[in-house]
What does this fold into?
Amino acid sequence: TKASEGATADAERLRLPTEAEWEYACRAGTTGEFSFKGPIQHALVNFNDGDVKNAVVVAGRLEVEWNTPPAPECRMTTAPAGSLPPNPWGLHEMHGNLWEWTDDRYSPEGYVGREAVAVDPFDRAVGSEPRTLRGGSWYDNARLCRSTARDAGGPVVRSNRIGFRVARSL
It folds into this structure.
């Protein structure tokens, strides 16, 4: 039917954002490390403020030994989507909560040498190449939840610290 054809066409336009698109959306017209003003707080970002001494997986559960335990308001798990205040463009949980996949291959240098590029320096990951992850997670410290924070992960990695959001092509 026409309705199902339209739904299929819309779904085909959904994709992972590029790394540059992700950062642009995270910053939402701001220029600081975070898209909000003031100090980082658990009411704004889902992050870990404890100092981990040792962490191991035992029977499928993460067991953590602390040098300094996290503050009582630290969630130590994912927060439900939309539960933290949005950035200026209405996007929730851009800082912390979950690392988010992008469609770009990971390069340790990031944007080095690309400063003069006027368009998105898209570099699609292929096969099992590591992709760039952005945003930090509930398990990471605040520094890893900044707009510019990056990490890498192969597409076969499964974790309760990695998620994704989609972009729509026009």
